[in-house]
Amino acid sequence: LPLILKVNEEIREDRAHLEQLTILASFGAEPDADEKAWLADLAEHYDGSTADLDDLMRRVDTIPVSLALAQSIEESGWGTSRFAREGNALFGQRVWATGNGLVPAEREEGKSYEVKVFDRLLSSIRDYARNLNSFYAYQDFRTERARLKKLFGSVSGHDLSHALTSYSERGEDYTDTLQMLIRVNNLGQFDDARLAPERVAQIFN
To answer: What is the pLDDT of residues 114-126, one digit of tens each?
Structure first.
């Protein structure tokens, strides 16, 4: 949970900066060289374009905490899977370069994908968030997130989970499982959670 909150905090910071640049652009203001470089790096990270800031705004957005928790539970077997234990892989991200991941024991014959490994759990969560925010298969997810936020000001993991049928070959059965996990484990209570600000310890004589 704290690692998911940290990743969302990082995304929220980038989004706030992007919003400022978008507002300035609407008034015809040109960003300086440093801002242009930052914007180019951000667009590259999310597979977006500096020429379409509206699309980039849909990409640079947080993942509902309850949804991230439910997917990590489902994909890693509550953290007990071989991929989670040996590769810090919580979300089952695949990679097609041989030798860059762990080979699933039940991989279908003729398939060449592996499950991507990470140096730490935080890296797995960052990659998961970037995957949802950049990969073409999740465009509907990003569009629905933006729509719900525009209508209600926020979005729950339960409501948004139905837009992830393309995440698994199980389709709607997969999203039904995510909704069940969120409901049964009351994960929705974490959707509004935030990391507490750092506090500086003071020593008094």
So the answer is: 778 899 999 999 9
CA distances from 57 to 103, 130, 133, 171, 192 (A): 35, 13, 10, 27, 21
Report whether 56 contacts 48 (CB < 8 A): yes
CA angle at residue 168 from 164 to 171, to 5 degrees? 70
Q: Average pLDDT of the chain? A: 90
Q: Rounded to the nearest 10 degrees, how much is the dihedral formed by the CA atoms of 147, 165, 130, 15?
A: 10
State residue 116's pLDDT score.
86
Output the DSSP codes for 76-116. Answer: HTTTTSHHHHHH--SS--EE-STTSEEPPTTPPTT---EEE
Q: Which residues pair with 101 in a beta bridge?
A: 116
Closest CA to 48 of 37, 60, 64: 60
> Which DSSP letter does residue 132 get?
H
Q: What is the pTM of this model?
A: 0.89
